[in-house]
Each structure stands twice: as C-alpha cells, then as structure tokens.
Design a protein that fits this description.
alpha+beta; 3 helices
Length: about 110
C-alpha cells in the first residue's frame, strides 16, 4: 500500500527524503489499481496548505493516470451533484466539471 499527500516529507534521518511530485516519475505505469476517496476534490484549494491551483483536481487525475498500468483500475470517491466549490473546502462535481475529470488519455 502506498499513500500520498501534498506535503514534502522530511525524516529526522538524513537517509530518507520524499517529495510527492517525484513519486509519479518513479512509479510510472506501476500500479494495477489506485483508490482515492475524499481526497481529489480538495486538490488546489489551499485548505491543506497545498498550492492554489484552479485545476489541481484535474492535474491529480492526470498524475494518477500516469501511475496506472495499461488497463489498470481506478476507484474514485468524490462528491457528485450540482457543480460547486465550497469555499476552499471541497468541490462538488456535476455536468460541467465531472467530464473534465475523466478527459485523460488513460482514465
């Protein structure tokens, strides 16, 4: 199991340093499946000290598509309803934004 978050992780040990942005390069086409639940809808809104990015959620979907093996499965849990951005808390996906989330080459 591998877990990612927005932050750079620095261990007290000088032997371990991890930058999430480099993870997708190291693990290109590596995973048979990816599961994301209640996470991507927060990407790019700055609530968890992540960089502000109006398409941060779409970028995360593209990163995931690069990490999946061809034919890999993606299990996604996001709020669905009328398109909305709830302050800097989360997005709700509807007729406009939901298709944008799945516009990638592999997803």
């Amino acid at each position: 199991m591998t877990n990612l978050f927005f932050f750079v992780f620095v261990s007290l040990s000088a032997k371990f340093y991890f930058r999430p942005s480099l993870f997708r390069i190291s693990y290109f086409n590596s995973f048979d499946f990816v599961a994301s639940f209640s996470s991507i809808e927060h990407s790019g809104l700055g609530r968890y000290n992540d960089p502000l990015d109006p398409i941060g959620d779409i970028r995360e979907m593209q990163k995931i598509s690069c990490m999946l093996k061809p034919g890999g499965l993606f299990f996604l849990g996001i709020p669905v309803g009328q398109d909305d951005v709830g302050h800097n808390c989360h997005r709700t996906y509807g007729r406009i934004r939901l298709p944008m989330m799945f516009a990638g080459e592999y997803i």
